[in-house]
Fold:
Amino acid sequence: MQPVAHPSAPTTASARAHNFSAGPGALPTAVLEAARAELPVFGDLGTSVLEISHRSPTYTEIAASARTHLRALLGLGDDWHILFLQGGASQQFYQVPLNFLRADASADYLDTGTWSAKAVKEALRCGGVNVVASSKDENYSYIPARDSWELDPEAAYFHITSNNTIFGTQLHDEPDVDMPLVCDASSDFLSRHLDLDKYGLIYAGAQKNIGPAGVTVVLVKDAFLQTRKDDVATMLDYGTHAAKLFHTPPVFAVYLVEKVLAWLQEQGGIDGIAEVNARKAAKLYGAIDATDFYRGTVHPDARSEMNVCFRLPSDDLEATFLADAATHGLVALKGHRSVGGIRASIYNAVEEASVDALVAFMREFEQTNG
Ligand code: PMP
Structure:
């Protein structure tokens, strides 16, 4: 194996590619530059932020500021706890049922893709699972219609995946159900408004829409938190982290999340970014629909505004498309192996100019190869 190459010369913002990575995804250039300006010395600390105690005033302020931004962006009241955990969204697949699903109880799950199927697998370790509906029969290319869901009125909670990163589908309506929603919002968190009244808990790995890998944001409503089991291992008990700073959090990841949240507020908050996100997605789906050369892989009413998946007429053309795109500075467009083809992830930090560049490239590629 080759050793990792470490570039020695500083690169400039203009050298940055149009990055459509599914995750870890693009971060705002301004955030990266601000972080660079604070390395290796943060303010008058005499050290960088990577080298300070998580109980220092500086980190305490950073974490408080991140929480303040989140509260403002989402309208979270004091009845919501904001936790910065580790273990990724994958740990949440187990931590949620470990806290909230008793052995003699059952929870509802909507199976809309690989990640929800993984969540079901972990929940089964704790209690009963009722899969209310699944779109597995058509390789998760649609969201099962609301009237096909077989909900259990006694369910402890209803777990949904708001956006299916691999397959490029998204729930466009937040379900109206009697039990609290638990949502894996990893790949569309803070891309649009949430109707908080419907939720008990929302979790999101930061590395797509709100920061780097290494921190998972968990929002949990206090009333829901109080329904948890009382015999959960300390580190996996949400109550531990809601009560105090129990252990060393991922300081640098939280620091970057704080900067992304501040940046998001500068973009006009959720209203502002949601408008841009809708426009970016409309442009890209418009380019796909404009011709038979490109074919979207999901049912139009389930299309994601975050992960746009499409195919070309052949595997060979797809390989050429990816190679040519890279020479135009359009990177990380390869679809997940379970769908194939192309996937353009257009998270909050992917600029509209990147989508414009991709659309222009798609037109040009079809003219040459169609
Ligand atoms: N849920 C969704 C919707 C995801 O997209 C991912 C990661 N791609 C995960 C869960 C798993 O996240 P992590 O790798 O942070 O455990």
